[in-house]
Amino acid sequence: ELLTKLTPEELAMLAKEVDPDDSFLPPSQRCGYECNKNPTGPLNRKKLIDYINKQALETPDIPDLKPFVAGIIRGKKWIPPQKPSDSSDDKITIDLDGDFESALNGATQEEI
What GO biological process terms are annotated to this protein in UniProt (predicted)? Predict the structure, then answer.
């Protein structure tokens, strides 16, 4: 109800004061870019695509400085770095009190 009473200028000022990183705003409204220009003319999508394709075909390719020759290797061959060895067989030593150690050494598999 309060927003309906505001003028467009006041709404624009309020929009500029809003946090741009607010995740509740849609991404299109988080952007500070504002363009108040009128459209230059109607958009004809087919003509636009035809023009872009025509420009792409008419634009000459940039020539290679060194032409491709089969069998010639340029630069260094990439060698992946060696993976560190997986040392999961490391022995772990645990310091137990004398009572626990004697109880575990004398226990059977079923008692453990």
Answer: actin filament organization; myofibril assembly; pointed-end actin filament capping
The whole-angstrom separation of Cα 69 and Cα 71 is: 6
Distance of alpha carbon 112 from alpha carbon 20, whole angstroms: 61
Digit-coded pLDDT (tens) for 36-67: 788 788 889 999 999 999 999 999 998 888 88
Comparison of pLDDT for 20 and 59, the residue scoring more: 59
Contact 26, 18 (CB under 8 A): no
Residue spans of beta strands (DSSP E) within 6-106: none
Task: Return the sign of the alpha-carbon dihedral for residues 105, 107, 108, 109.
Answer: negative
- Residue located via tokens 């067989």: 89
Query: Which amino acid is located at 15 in the chain?
Result: A
75: left (phi over 0), alpha (psi -120 to 50) or beta: left
